[in-house]
Amino acid sequence: MTIGKDIPPFPQFHHSHSFTLPFIPFGMSTRQAVMRSVTQRIESVHITSALPEGVFSRKIIGTHSGRFHCDEALACGLLLHTPVYEQSHIIRTRNPALLEKADVVVDVGGVYDHSTARYDHHQPTFRLKMETPRASYTATRLSSAGLIYLHYGRALIKEFCQQFAPDSAEFIDVLYDKLYKDFIEHVDAIDNGVEQCSGVFEKLYHIPNTLASRIDSLNPRWNEEISDEIANCAFQKAILLATGEFYARLEFLCMSWIPARRLVVQAFEDAQKSKMPEVIIISGGGLPWKEHLFDVEKEKDLVGKTLYCMFPEVTGEWKIIAVPEKLGGFANRLPLPWKGLRDDELDKASGISGCIFVHASGFIGGNRTFEGAFEMAQRSMAVQRK
User: Fold this and answer.
1) End-of-domain residue from the set 256, 286, 309
2) For 176-218, how does the pLDDT look when each residue is reduced to its tens digit (9 = 90+)?
3) Which run of H or of E encompasses 42?
4) CA–CA gap between residue 105 and residue 93 (Å, rounded)
5) Beta strands across the sheet bearing 118-119
6) Residues 6 or more apart whose Cβ sits within 8 Å of residue 156
């Protein structure tokens, strides 16, 4: 490698995947359309504490009465988005005779049996944990939310992609795993009392505003009037809150995270064809690239080979970021060597013109031009690999 001689031409970014959307009312974003759809469906649900008399045409989702939690609220909300149960009513009771008449029961009854649509997780014999095509989650037993996601999650994601994000449909396995890891698992863990960290530790501060705590706060208070009607109305709000956050996360993954994945995979493949496979060049700051890079390195059996990621800013300047040793960590595979230097001092130390800065830790730097930033990557590797 000759410093300053193997710089590729200024990259021309081609976003070859255009996203085809269904009809969305003028002026409404995809996320707004998704939330409107969820809200309309949940607000149309009838929740009671007893079965109606006579022949009942709609299916019944059964769950327990009393204090509600995030897992059964989400389980009910997900079921309401399946073709089988989308027109269902919900009954909240602990009466076995009434629950027996329900078409599907979640979080109560002491039985897990998919063939009879019974999804409780409280029985001592229950040990089921999530496995996806991409990972096994050994720390957390499933709650009722996880059970419904296990059996219906892929179909829900597929239906969502068909309606709102057709170009994400090829990533069903990726989305199924990501949505469990980033959303469903914490619902399962909290409901089952699984600590987030192992070992002895002291919490330095309290986080009061989690999804589970917000769901819990919707329960009638001890010193308020409590009736079945009031409790059921509150549970409907809990379903809307939990399900809305699920679909908000899915919308983000389909409309932002997956498009980013495509760009990172393309950048990685382009880098492997170049004289500098250690450097990937992506189309802009703010694009979530690290997790995608780690995934594609693993898939291509090239773990740890990428050292830097470059991207342009709206100002025309270029940033260069050192790839971390692990996701979420601060240590980098090869930090930039000119730590804490700026402008002329950095130009002189590096021998590269147009330098703007290098962070004190060496994890990021900037240059006024693409060529300058690329040369920073070249020289960093040359200096530190002697």
Assistant:
1) 256
2) 999 999 999 999 999 999 988 887 778 888 888 999 999 999 9
3) helix 30-43
4) 10
5) 47-48, 89-92, 60-63, 104-106, 118-119, 112-113
6) 78, 81, 82
- Tokens in use for 209? 């505003």
Tell whether 268 is covered by a domain: no
Q: How many CA atoms does the CB half-sphere of 320 hold within 13 Å?
A: 32
Measured CA to CA in angstroms, residue 110 lies from 93, 124, 126, 354 at distances of 14, 9, 9, 68
Q: What is the mean pLDDT of residues 320-328?
A: 96
- Owner of token pair 């990533």: 171
Cβ(262)–Cβ(173) under 8 Å? no
| Range of the structural domain that residue 282 is part of | 276-384
pTM to 2 decimal places: 0.87
**Rg, Å, the chain Cα set:** 26
Percent of the chain with pLDDT over 70: 91
Q: Is 141 within a domain?
A: yes
- CA 194 to CA 190: how far, in whole Å? 6
7: pLDDT strictly greater than 80:
no
Q: Given strand 308-312, what is the order of strands in its sheet?
A: 279-281, 308-312, 318-322, 364-367, 355-358
What's the structural domain count of the chain? 2
Report the C-alpha gap between 72 and 111 in whole angstroms: 15
Beta bridge partners of 48: 91
CA gap 88, 46 in Å, rounded: 8
Alpha-carbon distance 303 to 192, whole Å?
35
213 with 355, same domain: the answer is no
CB 21 within 8 A of CB 381: no
Q: Is 150 helix (H, G, I), strand (E, B) or coil?
A: helix
Tell whether 269 is covered by a domain. Answer: no
Based on the domain organization, do 139 and 280 belong to the same domain?
no
- Do 177 and 65 share a structural domain? yes
Are 108 and 233 in the same domain? yes
DSSP 239-286: HHHHHHHHHHHHHHIIIIIHHHHHHHHHHHHHHHTSS-TTEEE-S-TT
Residues 99 and 51: their CA atoms lie apart, in Å, by 9
Q: Does one domain contain both 206 and 288?
A: no
In a domain, 16, yes or no: no
- Same domain, yes or no, for 157 and 297? no
Token duo for residue 220: 């009638």
**What CA–CA distance (Å, rounded) separates 163 from 51?**
34
